[in-house]
Amino acid sequence: MDKTLPGLEDVSLDQFWMQHALALARQAAAEGEVPVGAVLVRNNEVIGEGWNRPIASHDPTGHAEINALRSAADRIGNYRLVDTTLYVTLEPCVMCAGAIIHARVKRLVYGVTEPKTGAVVSVFDVLTDQRHNHRPAVTGGVMAEQCARLLLDFFKTRRAK
User: Fold this and answer.
1) Can you tell me the distance from the alpha carbon of 109 to that of 160, in angstroms, rounded to the nearest whole number?
2) Contact call for residues 25 and 147 (beta carbons, < 8 A)
3) pLDDT digit string (tens) for 32-85?
4) How far is it, in rounded angstroms, from Cα 135 to Cα 100?
5) Is position 31 annotated as part of the catalytic site?
6) Cα(102)–Cα(78) distance, rounded to whole angstroms?
7) 112: helix, coil or strand?
8) Catalytic residue among 65, 91, 114, 145
9) Which distant-in-sequence residues (6+ apart) come within 8 Å of 25 by Cβ?
10) Which of 119, 113, 100 is nearest to 145 (CA)?
């Protein structure tokens, strides 16, 4: 798949990058962490990626989104991550939504909603609140079934142990 062909639909790119985020989520699962992955893209190039690591890093902020944002900021030498798209397998929490706003991420694409702590549409509506000076565009439900299956299988296996 040539990601740079003119006329390629955003949906195709969204699925391509969500597959990348799913691979990162599988890395989290392999490490015994809740399987969430995130990849930050600018001009069809990965500038940061991460997966959940709060247990391994002994860091409550070790969410996939935060790790991807930190990775990108370090790589480009700036905490402002303008003109980027963040792909994440699970709807971000309040902490991650706040970081997305402060980093000036242009667009968020997430897989499955998080009915307990989701801060985009499920529980809170942090990203589009008019009181913020930056509001990223949001696309939800990209490859939601695959993202949900990964989480469901992880927790099913964990409960069986």
Assistant:
1) 32
2) yes
3) 999 999 999 999 999 999 999 999 999 999 999 999 999 999 999 999 999 999
4) 9
5) no
6) 12
7) strand
8) 65
9) 35, 36, 37, 51, 52, 64, 89, 147, 150
10) 113
**Which residue type sits at 88?**
V
Where do we find the tokens 């905490």?
79
DSSP 48: E
Residue type, 31: E
Tell me if 114 sits within 8 A of 90, measured CB to CB: yes
pLDDT at residue 5 tops 60: no
CA distance 54 to 1: 34
Q: In what order do the strands lie in the sheet with 37-42?
A: 45-51, 37-42, 85-90, 107-112, 137-139
Q: Name the token pair of 63.
A: 């969410």
* Residue 101 one-letter amino acid: I
Report the alpha-carbon distance of residue 161 to residue 157 in Å, rounded. 7
Backbone angles phi, psi at 88, to 5 degrees: -140, 140
Tokens of 57: 């890093």
Q: Which residues contact 56 (CB under 8 A, 6 or more apart)?
A: 31, 32, 33, 62
Question: Which two structure tokens, joined as six digits, stand for 47?
Answer: 């500038």
